[in-house]
Amino acid sequence: MNIRKILLFIAVLCLGSQYVQGQNSLAPSVDGTVAWGFATGDPAEWKYTNVRMLTRIGVAMKIPYDKTVKGATVKAISIPFVSDNVSKLQIFAGATFSEEGDSFMPTDSVLATASYSGTINKGGYTTVFFDEPVAIPTDGLFVGYTFNVTRLQTTEDAEAVVMVDIARAEHSLWLMSGTSWGNNSWTAYPTAMLAHVAGTSLPDVNITLKGAEAPTAPAGSTAVVNASVVSNSAEPITTVTYTVEVNGTAQTYTQTLATPVPAGFKRRGTLPLAFQAPDAIGPYEGKLTLTAFNGKASQKAVAPVSFTSNTLGRIVERHSIVEESTGTGCLYCPRGWVAMEYLKQHEPHFIGISVHNYNGDDAMVCPDYPNIFTGSPTSVIDRKNEACDAYYGTFGPLGIRTDFATYNAEPADVDIQLSATFSPDGKSVNAKAAVEYLGEVASPGIAFVLTADSLRGNTALWRQKNTWGSSSKEAILLTEAYGGMNELGEFGAGGKYGSNEVFIHYNDVCIAHSFHPTTGKSQAQIAAGTVGSKVESAYTLALPTRDVLLQALHRDQIYAVAFVMDADGKVCNAARVRVEEPTGIGSVLRQETTDNRQQTTDRSATQGDACQSKNRQQTYDLAGHRLTSAPTSGLYIHNGKKTIKK
Predict the structure, then answer these.
(1) Residue 203 to residues 68, 71, 228: CA-CA distances in angstroms?
(2) With 70 as the cut, is the pLDDT of residue 260 above it?
(3) pTM above 0.85, yes or no
């Protein structure tokens, strides 16, 4: 298998799912042994399990040699399986893997193998014993298993390799597809297999501190530093004594853990340890030292680790902007549509800006938006990453969801209160943002955007091209569903949108913005300020005038978006609000729009024009007064829609 195929295998492996624990599925214990591995043996922690290939697959991990395994042997391996679509299952133990470029191959130093033909414990662990215990050499011991995937009919069938959702770690995952092995310890999550090690004993306490991170907190508040530890201890770790040094001042604390670190080999935990944040606002440096566990010192000295963090005036929710490049003429853009819809429905802090710039004959085309993309469908999140695939993201375990969660977790440096109303003549939107600086923002900028939801048409300009129209819905679900974004299957044959060209609704469509068409810089202005200061920025956005787009707009589904950027153009925070009607016609418009949209829902698209002409005709001026006939000129409201006669 060449490197490109191995990378594809890794990318497919990182597709996300979560296994729901069944009965009697915990990893079994083996008399006289201690379980060694990166998992605890509880299927409730299984995640990121998908390998959607009919092939022979191998999984391995390495037990490094140290004094805790001196003279020890491996008696058996417990293997996690979600499905029973398994044949030719075999376990092995080997002293070394030889490196050949970026791939790894088993050598002649395989020490033992054992085959298994019994029942597969579907949804749990299957334990396979070596004929004789295998000694752990001074170079360490690779242990693993190989098997054939026999069918791919269900999602469970596709979940062939089971991993656990913990930090990537050295020695934690080797993979084989076909005959070639690759070390994926730093590109995927650790394997959930367990080795049963005999002839060893663990010290009461043996802890390694791997790292520490402190989220941003309000200045002077009780903050938390999250310590990542690995325990090789005979007893669970329930209390920790530690020192946090901030800007040269050290404080010592003792804390009881809400979630103890379990006893056993390679037990990983994240310890949320409280400390006093500095009073000053801004970045700071800290150092964490763990001194005692359950009142005892670790057998192996625990080296301190440094961390950096930040304080703000106060903490507010971050709303993250996802700008997407798309178009009706783009064959692959349905996957971007699926991802944006998924984020809209499942991420409350999501703000979408869908820019239709792929093809000029798109009914929603927006060609003068800044070119921050690298093709379609691609997305940029808070303008902090290079454009990535709008569906796969940067190939994290949950596709674009992983990228969104990463950027949305960052603290917001500003708070934005946004309001927006239609102008009295109905041709534009007046937006106003009240911005409070919570941290230092150098050379701030601000941008305003109008987006529209529920856009749909029935002419050729609205047809979405779809490369999945000739694929089966089932095949798409087995190969493309990232992190539960199963809607893409509906674009396959047999699905809701299963044709090569399809009519769909569009949300978060950019219909106006404050960016200069040549420079790409926002023409809106915002004043700089110190921490705690408040400023305002206002901007007027002209509504589109193209008939094909105007006919699809629903005034109660138009939204204003504002986002503040720092000197590097990265988004500090964002806000989104529905555009309100001017005083005097709001209630009339909202009622008429509701009536008309309900009538549209109750009739088919092909009957729409004919039915609409039969509906009652309602005409109002901008003050909300009903008119007996339409004016010969000027702006008025007819059947809930803005109408202009020149």
Answers:
(1) 8, 16, 20
(2) yes
(3) no
